[in-house]
User: Fold these one by one.
Assistant:
Number 1:
Amino acid sequence: MNDMDRRAVIDKTVGFVKQRLSGAEAGHDWWHIHRVWTTAKHIAEHESVDTFVVELGALLHDIADSKFHDGDEDIGPRTARGFLSELGLDEGVVEHVGLIVANISFKGGKHEQKFRSPELDVIQDADRLDAMGAIGIARAFNFGGHVGRELYNPDIRPNLEMTKEEYKKAAAPTLNHFYEKLLLLKDRMNTETGRRLAEQRHAFMEKYLEQFYSEWEGEI
Ligand code: ADP
Ligand code: NI
C-alpha cells in the first residue's frame, strides 16, 4: 500500500471514530483519541515501529470501551477488526490492531497482558500519559462526576489490592483513583520518551494533591 492509500485509510478511520464517539463521556471522547494519536506519533519518532499500525491502533483503541458496553470486552477489538476488514486492509494489520485494542487497557494493572508489540507499547504509553498531568486530573474528575462519585472522603482509604473485577466496580471517591491508578503509571511506561514525559506529569499531580489536601484542611 502506498503512502497516499495509507493517508486515505487514516482519514476514513478518523471519520469513523469521530462519528462513533460523538456524545461520549468527555474523558473518553474524540479529543482523548486525538491527544493519544498525537502523543503516539511523537513517541513513535524515537522507536522502531510500523507507524501505520501505531496510528490505526491509537485511533481505534477506545472505539468501544467495555465499561460503557455492559462489560463486553470483545466489543472494542471486534469493532476495530470489522471496520478495517471492510476497508480491505491486510489481514496482518487487521489482526495486529485488534490485538492492540484488546490488550491496551489498565484494568487495575494486575492482570497479565497477553499480547505485546512495540506498536502497542507506544500507544499504551500515549494512553497512560493522557491519564496523567493536568489533563489526567480533569479526566478523572469528569469520570467521577459522570458516575456520581464524591471528590474526596478521608474515611474511605484507597485500595491497592483490587482485583480486576473490584477495580471495574469501584465506587470510591475520585481522589482514591490517584492512588489506585494515576500515581502508579510513571513506573509502568514502556518507552524512554514515555518515561520522560511521565516524570513531568507525575510531579504535577503530586503538587496538585499537596495543594488539594492543604485546602481541604482549610489552610491558607
Ligand atoms: P483503561 O481504559 O486504561 O483500562 P480506565 O478505564 O481505568 O483505564 O481509565 C481510563 C480513564 O478513565 C482514567 O485515566 C480516568 O481518567 C478515568 N477513570 C476510570 N476509572 C476511574 C475512577 N474510578 N475514578 C476516576 N476516574 C476514572
Ligand atoms: Ni484511551
Number 2:
Amino acid sequence: MGEQVGRAPRGDDAAWWRGAVIYQVYVRSFADGNGDGTGDLTGVREHLEYLRDLGVDAIWFNPFYVSPLADGGYDVADYRAIDPAFGTLDQAEQVVREALELGIRTIIDIVPNHVSDQHPWFQAALAAGPGSPERARFWFRPGKGDHGDEMPTHWVSSFQGSTWTRTTNPDGTPGEWYLHLFTPEQPDLNWNHPDVRREHEDILRFWFDRGVAGVRIDSAALLIKDPALPEVPDNPGPGEHPHLDRDELHDVYRSWHAIADSYEGNRVLVGEVWLEDPERFARYLRPDEMHTAFNFDFMSRCWDAKELRESIELTLAAHGLVGAPATWVLSNHDVTRPVTRYGRAESSFAFDAKRSGTPTDPALGVRRARAAALLVAALPGSLYVYQGDELGLPEVEDLPAAAIQDPMHFRSHGVDPGRDGCRVPLPWSGTATPFGFSPAGTTSAPWLPQPTDWADLTVAAQESDPASMLRLYRAAFAIRQNEPDLGDGPMVWITTGGDAVLAFARGPRFACVVNLGNEPVELPAHDHCLLASGPLDDGRLPRDTAAWLRLTVRDPAPVTT
Ligand code: GLC
C-alpha cells in the first residue's frame, strides 16, 4: 500500500508540491452521500471528477477521524479510524486510490498539539490520578493559591478565555488542573514525553502506508511548551514565548521529514504556522523540516496594491532564504470568505476583528475575489483553494443562533460570530435547499442551514454560465497546467499603470496585471489577453480586475523595479 499508483500528476514529480493547486475539502460540508445531512467520504468519492475537471493537483482533507466534534474534528479521539459520520477506513483508502487514479494526490490533517478529552490517553490520565505516568503525557498541574483553586498560568487561549480546567478527584474533591490552548475538550499533549513523539511518528507512518502524499500539520508552532510553565512575557523575543515557536520544535519536524523521506513518491509536510516574524516562519521551511507552510500574511492583508505588494515581496524574500516555495491562500475553514471580506471597507482579516454585521458590498466583493483568484494563481509557488471559494460562496452571516456550533463563538460569549459561516454545506444543483448536497429525497436537513437564495451559486448553475466564478477558476487552472512558467519559479515585477496596479511577468511570455485602483488603466504591450476576471473597458483594465496576458516575445524584457 505504501506505493503510489496511477497517472502521475503533471510536472516534475519530485517537486510536485512546489507548484501544486491544492483543494481543501471540509468533509462535513462537501457532499453528503448517505443522506444524513452531514458530508462524508462517499460524497467525496462521488465528486472526484468535479475536482479533476476543476484542475486541482491534490486534495487536503480536514480531520475526518473519530471525534466528538467539539471543534469540528480538531478534537481527535482515534487518529487511525474514520468517524462513522464520515465513513470508514476502507472508504478513506478508496478515496486516496481513486483520487490518484484521476491524478489527484491526497493530504491529510494531523492534529499533534492536542487530543480529544475522549481520547483513551486522556481518559486514562484522568482515571490514574496525580503523579501517574498516564498524566505525564499531558500538562496536569496543581493549582496555585492556598486551596489550589488558582490556575497554574494566565496563558490566554487561541479561542479566548483561560487555558486551564480543573479536574475533580474520584472522591469528588477538586483536583489538578490540565492545560488546553484551545477548548477544555482539547487537552494539550506533552511533547517532551517520548510516548507522544513515538505515537505521532507511528500515526504518520500509518497514513503514509495508506498512500497519502502529505500531511497538513495543525497548530504546528504550538506543540512544545516551556516545562517551567512561566507566564508569557510582555514582549517575548525569538524563542522566548513559553508555548509558541519554541526552538525545540524544529527537531520534531526534522524527524517527521526523515519519515516522509523514507517513503517513495515525495511525501510532504505542510505546516499551519501562524507567526508574524517572516524569518522565524522561514526556519520551519529549512530543507530538512517542513516542505511548505500556509502564507497567512498574504491572506490577512486588505485589498490594497501597496499592502499586497509588500506581502508578496516579504513572502518571496523569506522563502528565498531557505529555498522553499511560497504558498498562496485566500481563505480556509477558519476565516471569512473572500467574497464577503473583500466587499468590506476594511478588508483585512484578523480573528480579533471578526464581527458579523459589518457591512459588505457583495458585487464589489465578487469582483475583487475574481481578481484575487487570478492574482494568486499567477504568483510563484503552490496554491490552496478552500471548497466553495471556486463558487464564490459568501460568508453566511445570518445563521440562526440554534444552528451555531463553533466553540470560538461560545467562548467569546457571542462576540465572535465563529467560523460556521464559511462551513455551510456546498450547493451542487437544483433550486432549493439542500441544493444537491444530500441525495434526492433526503429528509435530514444539512447540518448547517444553507441560504435559500443559493440557486445561482450551485455547481450546476455555474457550469452553464461562462461568466461564473467556477468557469473562471476552471479556465485559470487549465491555463496554469499548460503554462510552464506558472507555479514554481521566479517572477519579475513590471512597472505599468501606476501605484494601484500590481503587474508581474512569469517567464518571457506571460504577465499578470491587477488593477486595485479606482480608474481603468492601459495594459502593458502584449500579444493577446489569455483570461480576465471581468470584461475589459475598450482594451483597458477596469478597477478591481485582473488579466493574464500573453506577452509578445520580441518586446523588450520587462522593467524590474
Ligand atoms: C487550527 C485549525 C482550526 C482548529 C484549531 C485547533 O487552527 O485550523 O480549525 O480549531 O487548529 O485544532
